[in-house]
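Reopening this one. Same input as before:
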Amino acid sequence: MAARTLYEKLWDSHVVSTRDDGSALLYIDRHLVHEVTSPQAFEGLTLAGRTPWRLDANLATVDHNVPTENQAAGVDAIEDPTSRIQVKTLDTNCDAFGITQFKMADPRAGIVHVIGPEQGATLPGMTVVCGDSHTSTHGAFGALAPAPVRSNMCWPPSVW
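Same output, byte for byte:
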């Protein structure tokens, strides 16, 4: 048997199905969620009358719109109105859908790509997705964690 890379092993162990065009559906072990890219996903679930399939596969935290000072004052201390709405929307959506979330005052909250490994949510051998370009940093922990791609593209890049 020929030697295989970690990428190949993780890919093969997570393939659910492959199409004739080479695109594949992968099983996702962990979905990390934050306030910037999640409103669209939650809206899509709501409009379709759907709920997340595996609640325990999801972990949310406030990340991009949290002030560096006065976090203990909570969401209302966020001065920028758009940022405040995004954080409040994440809180509302996670509460409504039952998603585990590290809210602003939670000492476990922080940068989504830091809290994943810190809290044991990112582990070797997993597939990890999140809605921003830094997702691939989870590869440092032995996870398959591609950065988001546009919906008209396939994964892996070799078949684009």
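So the earlier flakiness isn't reproducible anymore. For the record, DSSP finds four helices and six strands in the chain.
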